[in-house]
């Protein structure tokens, strides 16, 4: 097997790494290299010099030491769903945590400790065996790691808070290769930064979450309407979002109906507006609480009813398949002015790809009640978050799709609360948008924590928070 995979990378360095880690170490000559290097976003096509598939924390320690010894830049992968492709790297070291799949549920204490390679489908299945869950993302093959570190919203957010609000402790490999704990009593500054500050501060190998009683059957699902009702549906959502109890979580999706059996043939390939909802509570209460949704207009498709929580968590998986090309913009919204509604309708109808999605999620409830100083997540008072997901087939010209997404996002700015969701920020947005995603006060606190835990900016393959003061060195 070839060992020199990058000029300057000595054969003995690679041999030493292979001898010291329990998981496989891949280079471009390894048969599985091409499959492993790929990520969810097919537009990202990067070739790491070395991939370390870590099975446990000591493997991560060895990987970090290797990176520091050889000078290779580092990328970190949990579930591989980074939209800008941060869990891929050209010519560097990819520290792949996907083999770390342990899930230890403590139903009595309502806690779960999870390996960094677990995805939401796996965690939901394990916790639901005990009738428990923690707020997770709405697409089940997304990683728990990246989602939690950036905040993490899902159907349970209005009763249970964000994923990061439920992160009680973490095991972290630091930039200098130590394994440390982070909790309210051990390195609390690190825990604070991990609750929303992204992958800037260390590599988390285990996450411990607080669990909540959930389901296992909830009342929820979706009502689908033809596109000509889009403006009215968004105004209807806006009107009810400020009134519904915390147990109710609402969203709208502007998509094109796929040729799926749930949709009547007449809708296949046509733009539709989907009103999505879930009620975290009893079935009878849920049916009563969500009844108002059917008063909007007779839906073309009615998928609202009792649904297992694990199925709710997989309801939209088919809309975001791996390997398509994606470009995403987002913004926290203080409100949803009529002008924004009209502009979203225009973009929905003037789409450059049938695969594009515009998603509007209601926020509030428990998210808004967490004290700002408890976490590095900022936009707790936002009423909504809008996500414009440009999506197209490999081979299509990128330009028009990216411009469509940018234009739809710009149209939302009159309702902006001040910045984007960091996990839905794409690679080209720049330092000012990263700063705005945190707000000045949180950002300044994050760069101070970064200076303590990663003064050399080893973890810079992300929406980077440089160590020290604003504007200091950035690799
Ligand atoms: C289809 C899809 C649906 C989504 N739905 C939601 C949703 O409902 N709610 C929501 O809040 N977000 C959602 N997101 C955004 C999602 O939170 C981010 O894309 C997140 O980064 C995915 O995490 P991951 O572990 O899969 O990604 P990865 O690509 O593995 O990781 C992303 C980055 O996070 C950092 N990172 C990952 N693991 C670690 C670790 N263990 N230690 C330190 N740093 C680490 C690294 O910087 C890494 O590059 C969605 C994204 C996609 C693609």
UniProtKB/TrEMBL annotation:
Swiss-Prot/TrEMBL keywords: FAD, Flavoprotein, Oxidoreductase
Pfam families xrefs: BBE, FAD_binding_4
| InterPro entries documented for this protein | BBE, FAD-bd_PCMH, FAD-bd_PCMH-like_sf, FAD-bd_PCMH_sub1, FAD-bd_PCMH_sub2, FAD-linked_Oxidoreductase, Oxid_FAD_bind_N, Oxy_OxRdtase_FAD_BS
Q: Which PROSITE patterns does the UniProt entry name for this protein?
A: FAD_PCMH (PS51387), OX2_COVAL_FAD (PS00862)
Would I find Flavoprotein among this entry's keywords? yes
Where does the record place the FAD-binding PCMH-type domain?
A: 44-214
What cofactor is needed? Answer: FAD
Stored Gene3D superfamilies: 3.30.465.10, 3.40.462.20, Uridine Diphospho-n-acetylenolpyruvylglucosamine Reductase, domain 2
Family, per the entry? Answer: Belongs to the oxygen-dependent FAD-linked oxidoreductase family.
Name of this protein: FAD-binding oxidoreductase
């Amino acid at each position: 097997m070839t060992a020199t995979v990058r000029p300057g990378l000595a054969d003995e360095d690679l041999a030493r790494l292979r001898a010291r880690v329990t998981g496989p170490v891949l280079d471009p000559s390894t048969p599985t290299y091409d499959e492993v290097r790929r990520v969810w976003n097919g537009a990202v096509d990067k070739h790491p010099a070395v991939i370390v598939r870590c099975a446990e924390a000591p493997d991560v320690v060895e990987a970090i030491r290797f990176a520091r010894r050889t000078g290779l830049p580092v990328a970190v992968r949990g579930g591989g769903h980074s939209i800008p492709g941060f869990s891929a790297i050209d010519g560097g070291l990819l520290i792949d945590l996907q083999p770390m799949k342990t899930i230890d549920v403590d139903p009595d204490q309502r806690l779960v400790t999870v390996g960094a390679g677990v995805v939401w489908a796996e965690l939901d299945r394990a916790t639901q065996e005990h009738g428990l869950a923690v707020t997770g993302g709405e697409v089940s093959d997304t990683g728990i790691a990246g989602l939690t570190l950036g905040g993490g919203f899902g159907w349970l957010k209005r009763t249970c808070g964000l994923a990061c609000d439920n992160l009680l402790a973490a095991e972290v490999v630091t930039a200098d290769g130590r394994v440390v704990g982070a909790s309210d009593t051990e390195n609390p500054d690190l825990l604070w930064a991990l609750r929303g500050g992204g992958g800037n501060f260390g590599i988390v190998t285990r996450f411990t979450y607080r669990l909540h009683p959930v389901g296992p059957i909830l009342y929820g699902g979706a009502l689908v309407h033809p596109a000509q009702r889009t403006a009215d549906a968004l105004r209807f959502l806006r009107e009810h979002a400020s009134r519904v109890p915390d147990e109710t979580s609402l969203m709208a999706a502007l998509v094109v109906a796929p040729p799926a059996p749930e949709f009547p043939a007449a809708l296949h390939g046509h733009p539709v507006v989907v009103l999505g909802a879930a009620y975290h509570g009893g079935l009878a209460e849920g049916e009563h609480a969500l009844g108002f949704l059917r008063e909007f207009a007779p839906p073309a498709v009615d998928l609202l009813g009792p649904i297992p929580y694990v199925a709710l968590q997989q309801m939209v998986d088919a809309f975001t398949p791996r390997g398509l090309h994606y470009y995403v913009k987002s913004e926290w919204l203080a409100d949803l002015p009529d002008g924004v509604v009209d502009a979203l309708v225009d973009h929905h109808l003037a789409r450059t790809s049938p695969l594009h999605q515009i998603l509007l999620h209601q926020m509030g409830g428990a998210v808004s009640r967490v004290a700002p100083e408890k976490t590095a997540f900022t936009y707790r008072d936002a009423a909504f978050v809008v996500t414009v997901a440009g999506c197209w087939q490999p081979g299509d010209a990128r330009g028009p799709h990216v411009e469509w997404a940018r234009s739809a996002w710009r149209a939302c700015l009159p309702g902006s609360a001040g910045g984007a969701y960091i996990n839905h920020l794409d690679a080209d947005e720049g330092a000012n948008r990263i700063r705005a995603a945190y707000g000045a006060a949180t950002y300044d606190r994050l760069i101070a924590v970064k200076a303590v835990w990663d003064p050399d900016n080893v973890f810079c393959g992300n929406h980077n928070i440089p160590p020290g003061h604003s504007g200091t060195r950035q690799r």
